[in-house]
């Protein structure tokens, strides 16, 4: 009898070990465009609260992640899209790639940060805005009038002295181009960009690089992601951070569940975590505008009027127009793009 009990005990231990191993092997492929230094804290927090589920990141710029998800449409490899521009996520929804899921805590998000559908396909995390940054010592040499709005960037004294992101490879670049086209109208928007192009020195392949160049004095003024401009200023760069008087373009990073993947239940736990206060407190370390009502985020030197000046953006149109707009932008302006690494 004791041998039998020992056998049962051994079998039970073996089953427990096997079960533990199985849980440890639940890996979620998470496609993201979040900054690299955001990934480790988010992964650690989620995995600590969800033993047996492991995040495997697939990280790249918004444009490249978007292209990859669309290319994999027939055989999706991502379980969750976490931290990709909403304009891209709406494209995925249009292609039938996403699964509806209402995560726990969705009611704690601001209305603009959640899908209005009864069966929501996405939830917002944070907003990223496009700011102008001006290197004051370099700008003073030009004799140009102070920059207060977009048209001030067209002054001939700034020829070759501006930098902004390429919208085909940067989500920040695309939100800015889409913002001009929606707020100015198509004809006026393209006419504005034709004139702006004369003053552009280079189009970069990331949304933060323009402000880094302006901070170093390599360019006089930059258009790029809001938080990088503020970070460079807080690090001592002689930058004026400007919210254009005629409105600021923006997009939000969002999260979505991919349809038809084998680890859907684990993926839903991750979606739940992405809307939690804990996750939003992490987002708030990198973004001034976040989705939850109970998390405040603005850092030192972040313009207090930024959220009030956010343009009314039609994200559905932004997504639907993407291919056409990028093709036209590339035809007109790609000659000044930086070489790709």
TrEMBL record:
Q: Name one GO molecular function term.
A: thiamine binding
The signal peptide annotation in the UniProt record is: 1-24
Instruction: Give the organism the record lists.
Output: Elstera cyanobacteriorum
Q: Name one GO cellular component term.
A: outer membrane-bounded periplasmic space
Record NCBIfam families: phnS2
Gene Ontology BP annotations: thiamine transport
Question: Pfam families under this entry?
Answer: SBP_bac_6 (PF13343)
Task: Tell me the keywords, alphabetical order.
Answer: Signal
This protein is called what? Putative 2-aminoethylphosphonate ABC transporter substrate-binding protein
């Amino acid at each position: 009898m004791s041998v039998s009990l020992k056998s049962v005990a051994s079998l039970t231990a073996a089953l427990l070990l096997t079960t533990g191993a199985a849980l440890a092997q639940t890996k979620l492929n998470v496609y993201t465009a979040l900054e690299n230094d955001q990934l480790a804290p988010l992964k650690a927090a989620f995995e600590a609260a969800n033993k047996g589920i492991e995040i495997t990141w697939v990280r790249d710029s918004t444009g490249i992640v978007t292209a990859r998800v669309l290319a994999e449409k027939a055989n999706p490899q991502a379980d969750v899209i976490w931290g990709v521009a909403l304009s891209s996520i709406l494209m995925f929804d249009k292609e039938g790639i996403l699964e509806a899921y209402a995560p726990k805590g969705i009611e704690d998000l601001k209305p603009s940060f959640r899908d209005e559908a009864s069966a929501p396909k996405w939830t917002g995390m944070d907003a990223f805005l496009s700011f102008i940054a001006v290197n004051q010592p370099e700008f003073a040499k030009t004799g140009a009038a102070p920059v207060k709005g977009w048209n001030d960037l067209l002054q001939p004294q700034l020829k070759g002295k501006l930098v902004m992101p390429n919208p085909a490879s940067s989500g920040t670049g695309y939100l800015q181009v889409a913002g001009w086209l929606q707020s100015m109208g198509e004809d006026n928007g393209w006419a504005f960009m034709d004139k702006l192009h004369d003053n552009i020195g280079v189009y970069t392949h990331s949304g933060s690089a323009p402000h880094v160049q302006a901070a170093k004095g390599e360019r006089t003024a930059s258009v790029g992601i809001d938080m990088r401009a503020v970070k460079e200023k807080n690090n001592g760069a002689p930058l004026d951070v400007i919210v254009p008087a005629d409105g600021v373009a923006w997009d939000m990073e969002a999260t979505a569940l991919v349809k038809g993947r084998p680890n859907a239940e684990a993926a839903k736990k991750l979606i739940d975590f992405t809307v939690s206060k804990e996750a939003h407190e992490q987002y708030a370390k990198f973004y001034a505008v976040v989705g939850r009502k109970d998390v405040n985020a603005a850092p030192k030197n972040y313009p207090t009027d930024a959220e009030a000046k956010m343009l009314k953006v039609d994200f559905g149109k932004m997504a639907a127009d993407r291919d056409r707009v990028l093709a036209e932008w590339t035809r007109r302006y790609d000659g000044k793009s930086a070489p790709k690494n």
